[in-house]
Inverse folding.
């Protein structure tokens, strides 16, 4: 049997009070914080449901730290100047420890353990990177980087095309994994409304005390 290195999921986070600013006109700071925490819990649950023992959450605040530790994860202080620098340093740290790395955002409301499992399987036992495209803005909601493969995250709008171009330039094989759980992140009020239609009761599951938007 081949000795396949362990994969470390890496979830970068902001302080809860600073996240999802595009929802600020209709959700209070506390509501946004609760929503972000609820999505992070769901992402962590999917990782643990995929039988992954260790995951890293990088950045955030004391509540993010406690949520991570209470669920058996390793919380790390902010590592970089921005999102890409932070994830790059996370990848490097995982590689230095002999592990593969899996980038996942913390705002995937539909994520399931099968999404994580299938994303990792798409890496062909560590022979290629795997990219999971976002359904909106051309972004990337999942990157599997096997140990020893030099790959730099270029997250943000149109990052999926940038990642494909980087892989081609470096002659790195790529698998693409599509799923609802990894395709839909949550950023806008339209997302909230659309996702509630896609999964009735979603917001109550993410935030048990949810009372809805407060904007005009």
């Amino acid at each position: 049997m081949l000795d396949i290195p362990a994969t470390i999921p890496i979830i970068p986070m902001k302080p809860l009070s600073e996240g999802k600013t595009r929802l600020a006109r209709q959700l209070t700071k506390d509501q946004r914080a609760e929503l972000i925490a609820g999505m992070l819990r769901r992402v962590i649950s999917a990782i643990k449901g995929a039988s992954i023992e260790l995951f890293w959450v990088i950045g955030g605040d004391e509540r993010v730290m406690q949520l991570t530790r209470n669920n058996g994860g390793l919380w790390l202080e902010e590592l970089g100047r921005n999102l890409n620098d932070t994830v790059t340093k996370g990848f490097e740290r995982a590689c230095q420890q002999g592990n593969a790395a899996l980038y996942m955002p913390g705002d995937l409301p539909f994520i399931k353990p099968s999404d994580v499992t299938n994303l990792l399987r798409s890496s062909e036992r560590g022979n290629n990177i795997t990219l999971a495209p976002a359904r909106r803005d051309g972004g990337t909601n999942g990157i599997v980087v096997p140990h020893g493969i030099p790959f730099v995250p270029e997250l943000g709008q149109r990052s999926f095309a940038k990642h494909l171009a980087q892989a081609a330039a470096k002659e790195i094989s790529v698998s693409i994994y599509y799923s609802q759980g990894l395709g839909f992140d949550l950023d806008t009020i339209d997302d909230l409304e659309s996702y509630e239609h896609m999964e009735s009761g979603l917001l109550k599951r993410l935030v048990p005390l949810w009372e809805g938007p407060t904007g005009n």
User: Anything to note?
Assistant: The radius of gyration is 17 Å.
